[in-house]
Write a structure and sequence with these properties.
The protein is mainly β. The protein is about 5% helix and about 30% strand. The protein has one helix and nine strands; from the N terminus they run E-E-E-E-E-H-E-E-E-E. Strands 2-1-6-5-9-8-7 form a seven-stranded mixed beta sheet. It has a two-stranded antiparallel sheet with strand order 3-4. Helix 1 links the parallel strand 5 and strand 6. The longest helix is centred in the middle third of the chain and has 9 residues. It is globular, with a radius of gyration of 14 Å. It starts with a strand and ends with a strand.
């Protein structure tokens, strides 16, 4: 069964820090901001999601990544991440519905969380099923 392991926000940039709960509107998590609004924060990028299981794979490879470090808002466990693709609709709790829009392009600001700074390790084209995902909000909650 899928589970939200961590909800994360920041005042811009990474890492994002854990919060106990958050409200989601059409623009994303209330209180979360992006430092780079040219490349982040559109309605199709309202939320960034990542997999606890993928983070564990990365940690086993020696990368010092933790939940929220890569800028994801929701760190989720219990899903076959390779099956979550653009167009997938996810129900989160009783109200929130999200649609996956596309794979998040790795950013140089994530280099800290990867040995030798190789943040491209999150790139969908070279490591299918291990990328962060962007989602738009279909129903707020």
């Amino acid at each position: 069964m899928a589970r939200i392991e961590q909800i994360s926000i920041s005042d811009g940039g990474v890492p994002k820090t854990s919060v106990a709960s958050a409200e989601v509107n059409a623009r994303g998590l209330v209180g979360d901001r992006q430092a780079d609004t040219v490349h982040h924060g559109s309605p199709d990028q309202a939320l960034c999601l990542y997999s606890t299981e993928v983070i564990e794979i990365l940690r086993k490879e020696g990368h010092p990544i933790i939940a929220g470090a890569a800028g994801e808002n929701l760190t989720i466990s219990g899903l076959d991440w390779s099956e979550i693709t653009p167009g997938t609709v996810l129900a989160v709790g009783d109200k929130l519905r999200l649609e996956i829009t596309y794979y998040a392009t790795p950013c140089a600001k994530n280099a800290l969380w990867f040995k030798d700074g190789k943040f491209g390790r999150m790139l969908q084209t070279s490591h299918p099923g291990q990328s962060r995902l962007y989602a738009k909000v279909l129903e707020a909650g």
